[in-house]
Amino acid sequence: MPDKTMFPDPKYKVYVSYHHCIEDQEYRDHFEEILLANQDIVIKKSVQIENIEPNLDVETIREKYLKDSTITVVLIGFDTWQRKQVDWEIATSIATTKNYPKSGLLGIILPTYHKNETFKYNEHTIPPRLYDNIKCGFVSIHNWDTDSFIIQRWIHDAFERRTRFDPDNSRPIFADNLLGSEWHS
Question: Which residues contact 112 (CB under 8 A, 6 or more apart)?
Fold first, then answer.
């Protein structure tokens, strides 16, 4: 059992962003089970399969979908980088709005993400806005793990990073899902 004194505020409200395909849905469900196993440490927030309505502003997206979350975890599968909904959720999470401060942000590479054994990930096949924030130090990215204590540390680190680093939200919001095998600057 981990020492709870390591984490001064053990209650995190986690929003899970992911591509709503069958393969990634299974990992999202498993991730939720991992969080539920530590309910006294992490409170999960997530939507089931649904789409964010088009043309909503950041404040409305935050109020309607991300509400009072303090951490957004992006589960990164094969084509997560293409999804406008994921981009909107990341942009909304790292924005400070009238009613909500920015959330911490964390990326987790799923086993459904096809990677070259030499590299952890290809920067052009993860969500572009997530990559921008890895570069500026606001986000850390990790490979899939089922150890709840390790995930707890990642979440705590993301919570701490949100006050130590400024996020990069300069990229234009996706108007549509992206196409192709990878994104380009």
Answer: 23, 24, 27, 77, 78
Q: Cα(102)–Cα(143) distance, rounded to whole angstroms?
A: 24
Residue with tokens 């069958």: 22
Least confident of 50-59, 98-107, 110-119: 50-59
Residue environment code for 108-146, b if the CB has 16+ CB neighbours within 10 A, otherwise e: bbbebbeeeeeeebebebbbbbbbbbbeeebbbbbebee
| Token pair of 35 as six digits | 């969080």
> Which residue from 54, 91, 52, 94 is spatially nearest to 71, judged by alpha carbons?
94
160 confidence band (pLDDT: 50, 70, 90) = very high
Rounded Cα distance, 111 and 176, in Å: 26
Instruction: State pTM to two decimals.
Output: 0.88
What's 66's DSSP letter? I
Distance CA(182)–CA(116), nearest Å, equals 14
CB atoms within 10 A of CB 64: 13
pLDDT at position 38 over 70: yes
Helix crossing, 128-135 with 84-94: angle to 10°?
40
Using DSSP's 3-state secondary structure scheme, residue 11 falls into coil
The arithmetic mean of pLDDT across residues 151-170, rounded, is 95
